[in-house]
Amino acid sequence: xxxxxxxxxxxxxxxxxxxxxxxxxxxxxxxxxFTVYIGDDCSxxxxxxxxxxxxxxxxxxxxxxxxxxxxxxxxxxWRRCVDLARDEKFICLFSDDDIMEKDCMRQFRLCLENNPxxxxxxxxxxxxxxxxxxxxxxxxxxxxxxSADFFKxxxxxxxxxxxPEFIFxxxxxxxxxxxxxxxxxxxxxxxxxxxxxxxxxxxIPGESRVxxxxxGINISSSMDTALxxxxxxxxxxxxxxxxxxxxxxxxxxxxxxxxxxxxxLMELVKLxxxxxxxxxxxxxxxxxxxxxxxxxKMVAGLYLKKLLRRRIRRLAKHSKG
Length: 321
Fold this sequence. Notes:
Blueprint: E1 7-13, H1 19-27, E2 35-40, H2 47-52, E3 60-64, H3 74-82, E4 90-93, E5 99-100, H4 104-114, E6 120-122, E7 125-128, E8 134-137, E9 144-145, H5 147-154, E10 166-169, H6 170-176, H7 187-195, E11 201-203, E12 210-213, H8 225-248, H9 257-265, H10 277-284, H11 288-291, H12 294-320
Parallel strand pairs: 1-2, 1-4, 2-3, 6-11, 7-12
Antiparallel strand pairs: 4-10, 5-12, 6-10, 7-8, 9-11
Helix pairs in contact: 5-7, 8-9, 9-12, 10-12
């Protein structure tokens, strides 16, 4: 049976470089009432020895999978790691390189006492670099957000979101499952939206935050062209999913027409200089929503040129710096 307020912190693990720091941040929590499950994705690095250092400081369960799955299907790795959890009522899908400030779990339990019925809870986040230096203090979430408000604010640049700063009711996560896209790109956003569709998102008040690490070695930091191409395709699938999501809910699409187009194009322009403007224009023609509407195609082409010029200026400025 589920324990009423039990919490599982699930870590799909592969890299060792920041793993000790991650586990230490969990071991230093002011409220230690949670269980850590580590799913080692057949890493070539010795994660077990690091995990063993914390066996007296954490309620920790380590499992090494025989086959690496995350390299080809990251969402499948997430799924099998979540399946390691036992009867906990809440699940946080954390990572092997991020940090949880010391009062995060205490703040969640206090929030849960006052707001016990949500399926999705959220800590505020900050972005750190490989050295742990703060790069960006992201805006705090409102106290409560609907799925539509979350999507609109996220893709209007008013909030930021990843995956490790969310806690899901285990039954809701397992009933819905992850909304899967290649490389798990946008899977975090879509999964939050789907699970929060009925009740919304409850923000966890307090000073402690989750520190998301932009280390330069995670997928979202990669500048590899082949990965970027896969991200473009995954992003297009995500946008199509959002259109269907709001349509099925009988709701108006939350973004303006311009921001809707930008959502399609924001990853595409990152292919420059590997892709020329003409290459990108040809790709636009493969997107059904755009290619089937001549006016939309023309506007998208003009907007693509604007975003591309901005991208070129940014790269030029970076090369001079």
